């Protein structure tokens, strides 16, 4: 038999072992109870309630998010029309005429800048697209017209834009392209576009 600790008192050693077993036994049963309770998890009803709450929050937030995104795309479109006007003014001062296409305002295909590619617009806008809008520049006997149309009406924008050499930007709240007969954008629209 192994030697008894505590100066060879076997009774004391036996009592110590029984005490340790009792403590470990109580701790073990408490640990098992905790595990059983923590494994219970959520009931199906609780999970369905949480999912319903999340869906309600998403349903309430999605229209606002869509409107905010459309507003940002429209503001960027107004800014793009203003940038095209600035480029046209610079082009006119350099070549004594307005550009007849966005490509003429964009970067040159090769070599240095000239009338065919004045490098006044970035490559993206000179291809007729920026953000959620498509842009066209058309030469007219009086100067030029600019048209901005959402790529997907109702998603990337809820307005179309029109402007000409007068630099007045007009808008229409329908999918049809805006024209010279449509109302001007408001001062707050202009302020938002220039702040960006």
Outline of the structure:
The protein is α+β, with helices and mostly antiparallel strands. The chain has 6 helices and 5 strands, in the order αααααβββββα. The longest helix has 52 residues.
Give the secondary structure arrangement, pairings included:
Blueprint: H1 5-8, H2 10-38, H3 44-95, H4 102-105, H5 123-126, E1 129-130, E2 133-139, E3 144-150, E4 160-164, E5 170-172, H6 187-195
Antiparallel strand pairs: 1-2, 2-3, 3-4, 4-5
Helix pairs in contact: 3-6
Structure description:
The chain has 196 residues and is of the alpha+beta class. It has helices at residues 5-8, 10-38, 44-95, 102-105, 123-126, 187-195, and strands at residues 129-130, 133-139, 144-150, 160-164, 170-172. It has a five-stranded antiparallel sheet with strand order 1-2-3-4-5. Strand 1 and strand 2 form a beta hairpin. The longest helix is centred in the middle third of the chain and has 52 residues, at 44-95. It is elongated, with a radius of gyration of 37 Å. The model has no long low-confidence stretch (mean pLDDT 86).
Task: Give a quick set of tags describing it.
196 residues, alpha+beta, five-stranded antiparallel beta sheet, 6 helices
Query: What is the global morphology?
Result: elongated
**Could you estimate the helical fraction of the residues in percent?**
40-55%
Helix count, DSSP H or I runs of 4 or more residues? 6
Strand content: 5-15%
Encode the helix/strand succession as letters.
Answer: HHHHHEEEEEH
Question: Major β-sheet, in short?
Answer: 5 strands, antiparallel
Count the beta strands.
5
Distance between the ends? 88 Å
Mean pLDDT score, rounded? 86
Low-confidence spans: none
Strand order of the largest sheet: 1-2-3-4-5
Structural class: alpha+beta
Taking Cα atoms only, what radius of gyration do you get, to the nearest Å? 37 Å
């Amino acid at each position: 038999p192994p030697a008894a600790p505590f100066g060879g008192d076997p009774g004391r050693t036996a009592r110590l072992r029984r005490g340790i077993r009792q403590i470990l036994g109580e701790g073990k049963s408490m640990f098992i109870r905790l595990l059983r309770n923590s494994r219970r998890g959520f009931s199906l009803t609780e999970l369905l309630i949480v999912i319903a709450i999340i869906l309600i929050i998403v349903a309430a937030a999605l229209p606002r998010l869509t409107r905010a995104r459309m507003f940002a795309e429209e503001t960027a479109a107004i800014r793009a029309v203003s940038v095209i006007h600035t480029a046209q003014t610079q082009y006119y001062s350099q070549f004594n005429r307005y550009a007849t296409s966005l490509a003429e305002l964009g970067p040159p295909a090769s070599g240095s800048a000239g009338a065919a590619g004045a490098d006044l617009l970035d490559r993206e806008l000179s291809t007729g697209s920026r953000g959620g809008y498509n842009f066209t520049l058309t030469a007219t006997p009086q100067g030029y017209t600019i048209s901005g149309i959402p790529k997907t009406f109702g998603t990337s924008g809820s307005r179309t834009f029109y402007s000409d050499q007068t630099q007045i930007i007009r808008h229409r709240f329908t999918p049809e392209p805006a024209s010279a007969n449509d109302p001007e954008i408001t001062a707050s629209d202009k302020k938002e576009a220039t702040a960006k």
